[in-house]
Amino acid sequence: MRRDGAAARRALHNEAGSPEGDGRTFPGTPKNAQCPCGSGKKYKVCHGMNEA
To answer: What is d(CA 18, CA 9) in angstroms, rounded to the nearest whole number?
Structure first.
């Protein structure tokens, strides 16, 4: 079974898969703070998109 590069990287670094698809939000998180999911992205471009 072959994995694509992005999926392999996420599995290696324990990163969230698809923030847009999981539907999670983290109430009270400022938009410019790091996302609590551990992706390393800002909240507004990661799980903050689910709030729109």
So the answer is: 13
Closest of 48, 28, 51, 32 to residue 16, by C-alpha: 48
Does this model's pTM top 0.85? My answer is no
Burial of 43 (0-12, 13-18, 19+ CB in 10 A): buried
DSSP H helical segments within the chain, as ranges?
5-13, 19-22
The SS3 assignment for 36 reads: coil
Place of tokens 């938009």: 31
In tens, the pLDDT along 10-50 reads: 566 555 456 666 778 888 999 999 999 888 999 998 888 87
Residues constituting the chain = 52
